[in-house]
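quick one before i forget lol
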Amino acid sequence: MNDSNPQKRAQKVDELLERKEFAEIWALKWSELLMVKTIPNRVEYKPMFLYSQWITRQIANGVPLDEMVRALLGASGGSFVSPAVNFYQIEETTQKTAENVAQIFLGTRLQCAQCHNHPFDKWKREEFWSYAAFFKETRIAPPADAAADAIKIAQEASSEADPHSIRIPETDIVVPTRYLGGDEPDWNAVPDSRANLGPPGRR
């Protein structure tokens, strides 16, 4: 109260932002959204602990959220060496991963649209699967060195004639990979499906 410096409020804000508690509380909030959790007999404690530490470091180092999200969605490699890949451990299917990403980062619930046109929203079944196609080549595989990693996430080459499309399950309908409510990515610029995902306005 006795400080006459006109910049004292800005200085105090900067001081508080530098404290480790700031990063820790926001990491806690993001960890809930990004599903940092173990699953008995499937998702182990150590990779999730490293994943949680990775989130904390992003916030503590002031990494912009769009960069953090892009690093997370495009992550590949071993679960210990590249902790962000642990986001893909939680769900084992393309459609569940697509649902989670849409809800977490776009604030959009798409569950209904995977089986039928959404009864209360604009999303159609074909739009859901065009969006889910971004994740169709994401694979969880055993690591080359079990002592170094619990799992490995990789973007596998598609055996299909058009790697940037997907067949809707139980139909003969094939749809191209598209942003939700948008166009196809520029595959010439970025051929990797997940690397094309990111916050609106950047892709």
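fyi The radius of gyration is 20 Å.
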